[in-house]
Input
Amino acid sequence: MVITCGVKVLRDEPISVPPSNILSHLGGLLDSADGSDVSFVVDGEEFAAHRAVLIARSPVFKAQLLGSMADAKMTSTTLQDIAPATFRVMLRYMYTDEFPEDAELVTEKLQDLFVAADRFALDRLKLFCAGKLWIEVSVDTVGAALAWAETYNCPELKKKCIDFLADEKNFRKVVLTDGFIQMVQKFPSVLAELRVKFKLNFEETKSFAIGQVVTSGDISAGGHLWMIECYPCGDNNEDNGEYLGVFLHHESKTKDVKAIFEVFVMDRNGAPSPSHRFRLVHVYKPKSKGNNDNTWGENRFVKRSDLESLYLTNGLVIIMCGVEDIAPTTFKAMLQFIYTDDLPRDEEDGDEQLPTEAFQDLLAAADRFALDRLKLMCAKKLWDDVSTDTVGATLACAEAYSCPELKMKCIDFFANEKNFKEAVLTDGFVQLVQKFPAILGELRVKVVGA
Output
């Protein structure tokens, strides 16, 4: 019998393998420009680079340097709309996958790098910049940050900015900043995302019966409580469950209230649908035994088949709702005042009342012809009819035609916590601060005390 034995001596210390240094080698390649085969001229400064690295790192450079574009055959390319310092930092990242030091990134340079990362589809660098921009967000800067996120398609930064605005303490200060006003001027659709969002799980509703309802939580608007009622299969048997219905239910026990109910579906790109939306105005009577007219809306708002084919995203349908209360408006003619020294009496049924805009025109005429009593009467009528939907236009009218009494009442209305959020999310408010930007300072003092 032959037995073969072997002995292996184990060493206590294994051979150590140094960490990867490929990134430092690539960084050295960039610094030395050895083997470079393409160059970029940025504002007169030339940068040498390597096609293979750029092609591997950026789909935009890949299309330029490999595709049928003219740059594919050129050894030198001039880049516009980017600063040399920004291009240098971006190029370093592409070679080494390392982010710049914080000391290198003041906010303006960070914004430029964010734009460059979006331009050349460097998603990781873009998110790095977004994270740094978010760290610097404040009440004064969140409007600008949200505009950057919307302009350069960064949903992560956008969501954080909107969440920041969702905090009521932040919201009251942010909407009175120039950055917010400029943002909503450029991207008015963002206002929709600051309204009430109603999420509907479409898959769950497939088993719903006609008349089965899904409700939102309580919504506070204009000092009243409301609830959105959604009938995923409608509430009318004649429609065979083919339509989705949406209604506004008035829950408060109050006197007559005239409400605007605006509803639209959000499309798959997160924008309001232009085809599936409605805006209703309805007078809600006080609740009583003989009156159940406290719900109003559209039973045939949108076909379920359209929801599934056009709007369904990750199993959800997003419906945006806005609720604003307004009072009936009245109108008296200037000529009637000149002859009678008074405004005409309202008809008992109110059918002869005219819109608020008419009183704005009448106030302008009274200011022009120095009819001070008529001017104050118009101001009183405008104030009587002020709502969250109209206060912006009313304040603009007061400022334009030197009516300090009406102006102060409108500013006080804005400062009321119940009115503030609804009032600043209207076109009237945006137009107000466009025309009279100095009014923001007066509103800040009244609303936030600063």
Notes: The chain has three domains: 36-192, 197-326, 329-338+354-449. The CA atoms of residues 444 and 450 lie 6 Å apart. Confidence is low (pLDDT under 50) at residues 326-332, 346-352. The radius of gyration is 31 Å.
